Amino acid sequence: MATEIDPSTEVDQQTPDAEPQSVEAETSSDTVTATAATGVKVTTGKLSARALIEEFEAGQLKSDLPEIYVGDTVKVGVRIREGNKERVQPYEGVVIAKRHGGLNQTITVRRIFQGIGVERVFMLHSPQVASVKVERRGKVRRAKLFYLRDRVGKATRVKQRFDR
Known about the structure:
Elements: H1 8-12, E1 23-27, E2 31-36, E3 41-45, H2 49-60, E4 73-82, E5 85-99, E6 106-113, E7 116-123, E8 129-136
Antiparallel strand pairs: 1-2, 2-3, 4-5, 4-8, 5-6, 6-7
């Protein structure tokens, strides 16, 4: 089923003044892959749906996210489109929950706006999240801080943690 790719065909397509490119060929029972230094990847043969999804998700993950814990006060930069303009609006609050992992990782951020508690759920690896910055670390003993919903004023404060 799988046909072998001749690596010389990729090298012949380069211009004469370009530097020579290295071509790697990997052969296994399931797939045959030829990769040039330009980043072109040609794959023939069987690939499972799971492998395709994992490869796609790995390319979508952000690498510049800080370590975020429940109880931290974070400032999330949210991309907002108004017509043809785009701007980044900061949203600052306390992380009261973390869910899932990998590409689907989310945090729930709670803040008080004009005396009313507002919570937003952010997918960390979403293109809508421009940046995440930890303002201060919180010292908590629970995995979810939903009890803060019932508290008002100074009772909603979380102690600061200095060891992280």
